[in-house]
Amino acid sequence: MSLPNGYSINSPPSESGEDEEPLIKNNPGKFAIFLFIYHVISDNNYQRRRSPLLLDFNEAPICCSARLNLAILMFLGFSVVYGLRVNLSVAMVAMVNTTDPDATKNSSVIHACPLPSGAENGSQTFQQPYPWDSETQGWLLGAFFFGYLCTQIPGGYLAGHYGGSIFLGLGVLGTAVLTLFTPLAAKWGSYWLFALRALEGFGEGVTFPAMMAMWARWAPPLERSRLTTLSGSGSSFGAFLALPLTGYICEQLGWPAVFYICGGAGCFWAVLWFAFVSDDPRTHRRISDEERDYIINSIGPQVKHLFSGTGHGWTLPLLSMMLSVPLWAIILTQMSANWAFYTLLTSLPTYMSDILHFDLQSNGFLSALPYLGSLVVSLLSAVAADILIERKVFSLVLPAVFLVAVNYAGCDHILTVTFFTLSSSLGGTSAPGVYINQIDIAPRYAGFLLGITNTFGTIPGVLAPITKISVFWVAAGINLGGAIIYLLLGTADIQPWANPDEEGVRQQKRRGESIS
C-alpha cells in the first residue's frame, strides 16, 4: 500500500525499481499518525441517523439553559469522582519504599530501561514509609472496584425509581469524606487501606447509573450524546487534572495532602449539587417554561412514565433483559473497553516510574496525556454521534493496535507516550456509542441498565491491576474481541421489553388469563 511522500506499508518494490521505505518498520511514529488520520476520516463516512422521536417541537436553545448547566455541574462532579479514584495511582509511587527488600520480593517488573546517566529513579527520592510489594500494591489499587461492583445495580434501580440527584450527590459526598481518612488508614496498615478504598468504591458506584437516570428525564433525543458525553467526559478531565496535580502536591506538600485536597473538593462540589439540581424539568426552580415544555414533549410518550412521579416502578422485565442480545452486546463491549481503560488508569504511573524512570512530576503529567486526548476526542465524537447512526467499531480496534505497539516501542520515551495517548484518545470515541446505546434500546430503564453494564464493566478494574502477564497484550486482545461482538450484535432500536405500550398489552393478557 503506497502512501504520500514515498512511504509504504510493507509494499513490494515500486515499478521504478526504487524501494519504498516501509513505514511500519522505519517510521513507527509516522505510521501511528497515519492510522489516527485514517481513523478520523473513515469514521465520518456514515449514514444520517434515523430517530422515531424527531418531532416538530419548538426547540429551546441549549445555550445558558438549565440542561446545559446540569451537564456542566455533572462534568465537574465526575472530574472530582475520577480525581478521588486515581489519586492513589500516583501517590502510591511516593508512598512505597521500593528499596525495601519486602517491597520487591514479589515483583514481576523488569527494569527494561536503563537509568539516565547521573540520574536516580524518580520514585526513590521521597520518604516512602510503606514496604508494600507489587502484589499488595495491585490489590490496593484494585480495592476500589470491589466496592464499586456492589452498588451499580442497586444504585441504578433506586435512581430509576426515586430519581438520580440524591444518589449522585451522596455518592460523591460519601467518597470524598472517606478519602480524608486515607492517610490514617495507610498508617494503620494495608488491610485498613484496602477496606477504606473498597468503601469509597461502594459510595461511588451509584454515580454513573444516577447520571443516566437523570438524563433519561432531561436530555432531548437530538441532544442525548452531547449532554451525556459532556457530563461523563468529566471523568477523563478529572484523570487528566488529578494525575499531574497529585505528583506536584506529593513533591511540594507530601503525599497525605493529596487526599485532603481531593476530599475537600468533593465536599465542596456536593454543596453546589444539592443547592442547584432537581431530578427532572418539572421541579426545577430556575428553568424557563419554554425549555421545560421542549424537554418533556420532545422525549415523547415512550418515556412519559418518567414524568408521572413513579419512575420505572418496582417491577422490572428481568428475564427479558437477561435474554436480550443487544444488552449483552453492550455489556461485553463495555467490559472490553474498560479493560484497556483500567489497565492504563491503575498501571501507567507505575510503568512510567519503574520502567521508564520518570520523576514524580513528569510521571503525573505524562500519565495524564492519554486522558486529555480521550477528553477531546470524546467531546468531538459526541457532536457527530447525535447526527450519525454508526457507533464507531474502530474506537475499539485502533486502541488495541496502539497498545500492542507499546510493546515494540522499547525505551523510546516519546514513542511510548505517543502510543499510550493515541490508544486512550481513540478509545474516547466509544463513549457516545456504548453508553448512549443504553438509552437507545431502553430509555425507561436507562439508569438500571447502566448499573448492570457498569457492574460487568467494573470486573476489569478488579482483574487488570493484579494481572501478571503481558498486561498490554491482554488489554489489546480483549479490546479487539469487544469490537467484533459490537459489530455483530449491537443495535440502536428500542427493545420490546422497554416499550410501555407493549408492556401494557402483556399485562392485559395476563389479567385476562387469570380471570378465565
UniProtKB/TrEMBL annotation:
Residues 1-10 have a biased composition (Polar residues). Its main location: membrane. GO terms for molecular function: symporter activity; transmembrane transporter activity. GO terms for biological process: carboxylic acid transport. It catalyses: L-glutamate(out) = L-glutamate(in); N-acetyl-L-aspartyl-L-glutamate(out) = N-acetyl-L-aspartyl-L-glutamate(in); 2 nitrate(out) + H(+)(out) = 2 nitrate(in) + H(+)(in); L-aspartate(out) = L-aspartate(in). Residues 1-22 are annotated as: Disordered. It is a multi-pass membrane protein. Residues 69-499 form the Major facilitator superfamily (MFS) profile domain. It is found in: Basolateral cell membrane; Cytoplasmic vesicle, Secretory vesicle membrane; Cytoplasmic vesicle, Secretory vesicle, Synaptic vesicle membrane; Lysosome membrane. The chain crosses the membrane at residues 66-84, 139-159, 166-185, 257-277, 325-345, 365-389, 396-422, 442-464, 471-489. SUPFAM superfamilies: MFS general substrate transporter. It comes from the Eukaryota. The keyword Endoplasmic reticulum does not apply. Keywords: Cell membrane, Cytoplasmic vesicle, Glycoprotein, Lysosome, Membrane, Symport, Synapse, Transmembrane, Transmembrane helix, Transport. GO terms for cellular component: apical plasma membrane; basolateral plasma membrane; lysosomal membrane; synaptic vesicle membrane. Receptor for CM101, a polysaccharide produced by group B Streptococcus with antipathoangiogenic properties. This is Sialin. It comes from Oryzias latipes. The lineage of its organism: Eukaryota, Metazoa, Chordata, Craniata, Vertebrata.
